[in-house]
Write a structure and sequence with these properties.
Blueprint: E1 5-8, H1 12-21, E2 29-32, H2 39-51, E3 55-56, H3 60-64, E4 69-72, H4 79-89, E5 97-100, H5 106-118, E6 122-128, E7 141-144, H6 148-156, E8 162-166, H7 171-200, H8 203-213, H9 219-250, H10 256-269, H11 280-288
Parallel strand pairs: 1-2, 1-4, 2-3, 4-5, 5-6, 7-8
Antiparallel strand pairs: 6-7
């Protein structure tokens, strides 16, 4: 594939994809991340892009110019705004594929789609269904939208393994959002249960009881992993869970659990605690020390 690629956002997902592609000419990838405009992040962002041979640019217009394939990989709360800003630049190439891989509610993705398609490009609802590491570009991806088949071919040419699940924007994101009720909800349950148990001094008894009731779950290992996800990515996960709440509410059901999950993700992320070694109790103590 010789198409020019633009990355809008160059965080964990974009870095994982690019490092997995191993392109002969990575310089045909342009990348813009709003953090590159912030003094405290500028040097680190430039170093990350340079290490992968990606051309970092200072604004959205330069990133989009002549791009055939665009990956928008930012945060859920900025996805529609990014799409509208891209459309407003006038730099979107007619017929370009805009792959929105942000974890958003179907209505949010439809809002973004109106902006992108109004500018003459094609909007693709892209759902990333698992953590991007260690699988990188081989992470499970679902696509939806009128041009989802064309996007699947483009992604396959990069070695990716997308699955087309529908021709309507929202078909992929609905699956992602409802999966997150369980995945991120379990993280919040782990946080509330284990942080409370540790503070009360009964964590060993609680864990033993859980292991006796459900021995198929490695509670210490799962707990350590879930807490680490919240410590490192909680702010992003909270934004996603607010989109999940919109999805559930849009289906006429109560979004209370999703809203509470968002709150716990924010609480843990706000501690800015270092996860440290892979140990549940040590991680609980780091979080509790900052609450």
């Amino acid at each position: 594939m010789t198409a020019k690629i633009a990355m809008i956002g160059f965080g964990e997902a974009a870095t994982a994809f690019v490092s997995g592609w191993a392109l002969d000419d990575p310089a045909r990838i342009t990348a813009f991340d709003v953090k590159s405009t912030m003094p405290e992040h500028k040097l680190a962002m430039a170093a990350r892009q340079a290490a992968l041979g990606v051309t970092g640019v200072p604004d959205l217009t330069q990133a989009l110019t002549h791009a055939d394939l665009v990956f928008c990989l930012i945060t859920a709360d900025r996805a529609a705004e990014a799409a509208e800003a891209a459309a407003a630049t006038g730099a979107l190439r007619p017929g370009a594929l805009w792959c929105d891989g942000n974890s958003c509610a179907p209505d949010t993705k439809r809002q973004a789609a109106r902006a992108i398609e109004g500018a003459g490009a094609h909007y693709i609802d892209m759902a990333i269904m698992a953590p991007v590491y260690p699988k990188k570009h081989l992470v499970p991806i679902k696509l939806a939208g009128a041009m989802a088949d064309a996007a699947a071919l483009a992604l396959a040419s990069l070695g990716m393994r997308p699955e087309v699940v529908g021709d309507q924007v929202g078909d992929a994101s609905t699956i992602k959002m409802l999966r997150s009720v369980m995945i991120k909800g379990l993280e919040a349950l782990v946080a509330e249960c284990f942080l409370s148990a540790r503070r009360a001094g009964v964590e060993q008894q609680v864990i033993a009881s859980l292991e006796a009731s459900d021995p198929d779950i490695a509670w210490r290992k799962r707990g350590a992993y879930n807490i680490e996800r919240m410590m490192v990515h909680g702010a992003r996960r909270a934004a996603e869970m607010r989109e999940v709440a919109k999805t559930v509410e849009g289906l006429g059901l109560s979004p209370g659990l999703s809203q509470a999950t968002a709150a716990w993700q924010d609480i843990v992320a706000a501690t800015h605690a270092d996860p440290g070694e892979y140990d549940l109790i040590a991680r609980l103590d780091r979080v509790l020390a900052r609450l």
